[in-house]
Amino acid sequence: MGACFMASWISWPKEKSFDDWYAAAHEAIEKVEWDTLKEPEWLENTVDPDMLPHLQDSVDALRQFLKEHLDEIDPDSSEVGSGCMGDREFIVTGGMSWSDDPTEAFTNFNVVNAALGVLEM
User: Fold this and answer.
1) Residue 43 and residue 120: Cα distance in Å, rounded?
2) In a domain, 35, yes or no
């Protein structure tokens, strides 16, 4: 089995900033519940199986878990690049993978994206 390239990104409208996206993400997390997650199956297949029932049963635990991953997203990290396409700005991370996440930032991006999807701002 060979390696493959994996990438994950977060984007926001060009007239906004990463800080605006970050504030909107924090606000969205305050309202999230397991049944409102954009991709719960992704979290079900990714989160430690011992932790999963706790996240599914406790909205406070779920929100804390998501906030921890959100707070780890650093657009200035050496693992993160940035760019602009059309009317969107974005940060991106990724790399070669042999079935594991290629960067720590990738894990954080994917957890937040699985929970919130693309934020309307």
Assistant:
1) 21
2) yes
Distance of CA 6 to the CA centre of its chain: 14
Q: How many domains does the chain have?
A: 1
Which residues neighbour 42 within 8 Å (Cβ) at sequence distance 6 or greater? Answer: 110, 114
**36-95 per-position pLDDT tens digit:** 999 999 888 888 899 999 999 999 999 999 999 999 999 999 999 999 999 999 999 999
15 forms beta bridges with none
Nearest to 73 by CA among 46, 28, 24, 110: 110
Placement of tokens 């997390």 in the chain: 29
| pLDDT at residue 96 is higher than 70 | yes
Residue 73 lies in a domain: yes
1 located within any domain = no
Token pair listed for 56: 């599914």
Q: What residues have CB less than 8 Å from 53, skipping those under 6 apart?
A: none
Q: Side chain identity at 85, as an amino acid letter?
A: M
Q: Which domain holds residue 56?
A: 7-116
